[in-house]
Amino acid sequence: MLRALFLAAPGAGKGTQGVRLAEKHGVVYLSTGDMLRDHVARETPLGKAAAGMMASGELVPDDLVVEMVLERMTKPSLVPGYVLDGFPRTIQQAEAAYLWGREVGTTFHAVISLAVPREELIRRVVERSRDSGRADDSVETFEHRLDVYDELTEPLLDFYRSRGILLEVDGTGSIAEVEARIDAALAEITID
Ligand code: AMP
Questions:
Q1: pTM of the shown model
Q2: 25: CA distance to ligand 1 center in Å?
Q3: First and final CA of the chain: distance in angstroms?
Q4: Is 136 close to ligand 1, i.e. is its CB under 6 Å away?
Q5: What is the mean pLDDT of residues 9-37?
Q6: Where are the alpha helices (DSSP H) in 80-138?
Q7: Mapping DSSP to helix (H, G, I), strand (E, B) and coil, where does residue 124 land?
Q8: How many whole angstroms from 35 Cα to the centroid of ligand 1?
C-alpha cells in the first residue's frame, strides 16, 4: 500500500492531487492543515494554541504537530497506507517522522514535490481566496507563507533527495496533466 507525501509550496496543488492519489490507491489522505483547521473549529486546546499562528501564516510548533500526526497514524492501529499533505514541514518534523518510522518498521515510498513558479502560486491563491474564505489566503499572508516555505520546508527537498525517494514533478498546467505526471513518476518505483 502506498505511503507517500507531498512536499510543495502553499497553492501548488498538494491537496487536490493528494486526495486524488489517495483515492486511486485506496489509502488514507491526511492533511495536517485540515486536521488543524478542524481543531480550530472545535476550539480544542490544540486549536486554540494554533489559531493565531495559522491565521498569520506561521507554522504551528513542531512538537504539537508531530504529536497530532503520530497519534492519528497509530490509533486505533497503524495506518498501513497513506498520502500525507503538509507534513513534515521542517527538518525537525522530518527527523521525528523518520525516527518514528524506524520504531514501527515503516518507510515512505515516495516524496512527491510539485514545482510551480512563485508568480503562478500567487495568481492561483488570489483566485482561491475569492471563494474559500480561508483566513490565511490574503495575498500578504500568502506571500509570508511562501517565505516560510522557502526558509523552513524547501530544505526538506535535499533531505529526501539524498535518501533517494524524491520524485520531482512539474506542478504547472491542468489538474489532469499534473496527475498524469505524478502517476508516471510513481510507475517508476516499487510500492510494496
Ligand atoms: P496547509 O493547509 O497545509 O497550507 O496548512 C495551513 C496552516 O496550518 C499552515 O500555514 C500552518 O500554520 C499550519 N500547518 C499545517 N501543517 C503544518 C505542519 N506540518 N507544521 C506546522 N504547521 C502546520
A1: 0.93
A2: 24
A3: 6
A4: yes
A5: 97
A6: 91-104, 118-132
A7: helix
A8: 9
